[in-house]
Design brief:
mainly alpha, 5 helices, about 85% helix, about 120 residues
């Protein structure tokens, strides 16, 4: 069933989410090697929050009911609301569930996924 939702997402959005995932793994692995496990996990968790919130947006915004521009716009707004809620919930879950969290590394991981998204808007990904 979840696979059906993924198949509805436009290919360009899937490429962006894949790029966010690659950046998350790269930053998490690099920070793990340089600064240790706690920092590596913190940056990985931050990136994961960005990836999962982007995926939630992509799935929800792909569920546009109807074919009018208004229907499409409503789906985009609903996707943004869901993305915000998922982001807040996941940040709280990580903060409560991972006591060794390094906030700076977490935020760097999260912001790196946002950077991928904004750069993808500038270039044809």
């Amino acid at each position: 069933m979840f696979v059906d939702f993924i198949l509805m997402i436009p290919a360009r959005i899937i490429r962006i989410i894949k790029a966010q995932t690659v950046v998350t793994v790269a930053i998490g692995s690099g920070s793990w090697l340089v600064f240790g496990a706690a920092v590596g996990m913190s940056s990985t968790y931050g990136g994961a929050v960005g990836v999962f919130s982007a995926l939630a947006y992509a799935v929800r915004s792909s569920l546009a009911k109807g074919k009018t521009p208004e229907d499409w716009l409503k789906a985009q707004y609903a996707g943004e609301k869901l993305k915000f809620a998922v982001t807040v919930i996941l940040i709280i879950a990580v903060a409560k569930g991972y006591p060794a969290l390094h906030w700076l590394a977490f935020l760097m991981g999260f912001m790196s996924t946002m950077l991928v998204y904004f750069l993808a808007l500038l270039w044809d990904v």
